[in-house]
Amino acid sequence: MNDTLVKTVFFNVPPATVWRFLTDKDKLGTWFHPARKDLAEGEAFECYQTSETGETSRHIWGEVLTADAPHRLVHTFEIPAFSGVATTVEWVLEPIPSGTRLTLTHTGVARAMGDAALPMLMALDAGWEEHFALLRPAAMAQAA
Amino acid sequence: MSLQGAFRALSDPTRREILLLLSRQDMSVGEVCTRFRITRTAVKKHLSILEEGGLVSAQTQGRERINRLSPEPLAAVADWISYFSQFWDTRLDALQAAIEADTQAQQQTSPPAPEAEAPETGVIESGTIETGAAPRTSGATAPANASRKDTQDE
């Protein structure tokens, strides 16, 4: 099974700007989930969610393996459903004349999920629900 | 197996709860009812939708219908690569929107964006480079996911 996801996306801002959005705890909150502190090499990180009652809980977490600003960021990526098995996310930022090419590589997902299908589905909260809804058309297309 | 039915069955939190209960043990309708503060009729309705989705099978034992989890369709539904592929598409769209918003806030020269067609997403698979995936301009700003939302209707 192909267990690696690769995504490439372009930005019309320099790598240093994109880098901040990947590593700054507050900037992460604008498109992902806010982190407890800025991502730094060799350190653990934790992105959290805030419930309606104002309590925060860790949502996605891991360890920053490499932080070579503004070129390459590698971190492990864990969610509750992975039950302790870490996947790896690598971000590569390349300068191009008009800005930045960002390549995301996420490996180990299928392996980490294993037989966790049901617990994962149970763990779907509001945030994941949205992604799950998005999966539908994709899965339909695949089943057709 | 209708994947559509499985998705419908999974779309409701109560039904997912029921599945979780059934993953631990088989249960009669009455036993399922004791776990929820909803009417027996509502529970039976949920169970029948789960059954239609192929996620639960019910067997008659005496006067009772015993409900059992059928996990097979979950494997088909739970294509994790697709799942995370969509997950990152959504997040990367949000990242583009966030960076654009930030850039515009700094320049403070942005006229209101016209009601534009949702642009082609800049996210592409496996490093394939499309010319259409050029950086978005401020005029093409769209809410994250706008290009996808319209494909979700049943």
TrEMBL record, chain A:
Residue ranges annotated for the Activator of Hsp90 ATPase homologue 1/2-like C-terminal domain, each copy included: 12-135
Coiled coil: none
UniProt superkingdom: Bacteria
Matching InterPro entries: ASHA1/2-like_C (IPR013538), START-like_dom_sf (IPR023393)
Pfam families the record matches: AHSA1
Family the UniProt entry places it in: Belongs to the AHA1 family.
Protein name: Activator of Hsp90 ATPase homologue 1/2-like C-terminal domain-containing protein
From TrEMBL, chain B:
InterPro entries, sorted: ArsR-like_HTH (IPR011991), HTH_ArsR_DNA-bd_dom (IPR001845), WH-like_DNA-bd_sf (IPR036388), WH_DNA-bd_sf (IPR036390)
Domain (HTH arsR-type): residue spans on this chain: 1-89
Molecular function terms from GO: DNA-binding transcription factor activity
Region listing for Disordered, in residue ranges: 102-154
Pfam family of the protein (one): HTH_5
Entries under PANTHER family matching the protein: TRANSCRIPTIONAL REGULATORY PROTEIN
The name this protein goes by in its record: Transcriptional repressor SdpR
Gene label: sdpR_2
